[in-house]
Write the structure tokens for this entry.
Amino acid sequence: MDIICYDIETMKEYFLVVALIPGEPYKVFKVNKNENNLDAFVAFTQKYKDHYWVGYNNLRFDSQIVEWVIRNYQDWHDLSNLEITAKISQKSADVIHDANFDVFPEFREWELSNKQIDLFKVHHYDNKNRRVSLKRLEFEMDLDNIEEMPIHHSKTNMTDEEINLITDYCFNDVSATYEFYKVTIGDTTHPLYKNKNKIELRQDIEQEFGIKCLNYSDSKIGDEMIKKYYCQEKGIEYKDLPKKGTFRKNVHVKDCIADYVEFTTPQLKQFLREVKRESLTMKDDFKHEVVYYGNTYSFMKGGLHTENSPKIFEADEEYEIIDWDVSSYYPAIIINNGRYPKHLGPQFLAGYKKMFEKRLELKPKAKKDKRIAGIVEALKLSVNSVYGKSSDMQNWIYDRQLTMFTTITGELSLMMLIEAYETNGINVISANTDGVTIRIRKALIDKMHEINKWWSELTKYELERADYQKIIFSTVNDYIAIKTDGEVKKKGDFVTDFELHKNKSARIVPMALEQYYTSGIPVDVTISGHTDIYDFCLRQKSSKDFHYEGFDRATGNKTVYNKLIRYYISNTGEKLLKVKNEDSDSGAASVSQVEAGEWLVTVCNQLNKDHPMDNINHAYYIERAEKIISKIRTEGKARKIVVNPNQLTLF
């Protein structure tokens, strides 16, 4: 695929386009008081019509401005350079205003002169729960420079130096966009993205299913796949799909429980009788807590969970630790119980089942055929998306009863398996949305298989096994589990590889914890010997209420920082303060310290991998790791960890 990574700046006195064709020098087009490259830029867009123009939020912003310029620039030949930049700047403000109020963009994707790839949409960062700026990505990708806009867009009487600052800033944004594009196509060492080409996947989907989805998120691809299968089953055109879901003022819990669900112990029998009498309004969620055989089970909107306290479980000569996950649990609940959104009828279930079965049929071939692997991935996206979309009031699948049936039946079905285990002397360590982990005496392995066979035949769900040497919990959502084959499963405090919309601050801490629990290496050895400075970095981001300042106690000097800052804890440096803005109505303190105590920081928005390591204060990171180890060692009982900020010794 031929691509151009690009970014634009729309200052009141400076319109700038920087474009990068991989392997070639940057192309720069400027309109300011000194020069006007507008004709050359439009010619450039015509020359490269067959390339894909790659940007970040470019469908909503950059491409809109560029298209408007292409369609109108011929009328501007009598205008001065600054009159042109003012027109473009005003258009930019209008586009941003419309976007803030969810007004459709002036030019739809198919109306644009140049083909676009919008990485912001591909990664679903247009979703408010995943939204992340390009600056954030620069931190998460460990790029050398994290640069904020150095000059306000409304600046007038710009100097040549200011023009050069903006140009350098735009160069950095284009470079960051290109690095993110490489992550998107799997050209990266990041283990969560390596060799996973999201663009190629979307091309495979278009070729196989005829869905033009180059700029669709995984979630939207799933939605479009379901629509296609449903239209085929229903015999209708895409345009005739329902626009609304099924709205219910109340959902009766008894209608959300599969017929096979029943219990044998008095406590759970009573629990089932009680919940069947419940009715949930639009504002209610199914929420209960049951203490059973020493474990506390929480029945929540997101599924069943145990309330695990800090503890270590190990396999030995007498006991095994086994995890049983239900294969494709939520899709299986919907299909096996013949459920579907009321307004869509049984044709929805028929199409959904075909997708599910098609994926299972193709899955064995996916390892050898890259294209089939893409199709299998597309079907997986689609099958797994139905549960979430059934709870989205804006989605055509919406039917809250389907959501609640899937959740409640899933929770109670797992509870049946837990009841059978516990009443037969098999200890449940933990439970989550789609699985149960047990610590079992080897003498009871045959009984376990007998229970699993009974449960699977009754429910029609398949159980998948994983064997563990050890599981270490700090909470139910924070654990590290070491499988018998050496594979490590991590969550929460122990995660070392993060999706890019998440926060990897102080990554060295979970790295040290993993080495401690898998190899017995003390955390101070791992931390003091680590040489990748990016793993010691943390980030903070200002808001409308607060900004960040550095205070040097020795000189009394104060530094006011831009929106996003990268820093590490250092032996010499400054205090980092969170300062309330004058116009803020927040009730929080006017000034607070970001890193409590005597810790000093070094802000390093410009940072390369060869940066000296000798100013890092390892004690801070050791303390964070030791606090988690202490909590687990004492099973949650408080024990104070004291670290001298200027030494590595733990007291």
Summary: Confidence is low (pLDDT under 50) at residues 638-651. The radius of gyration is 28 Å. The longest strand covers residues 463-475.
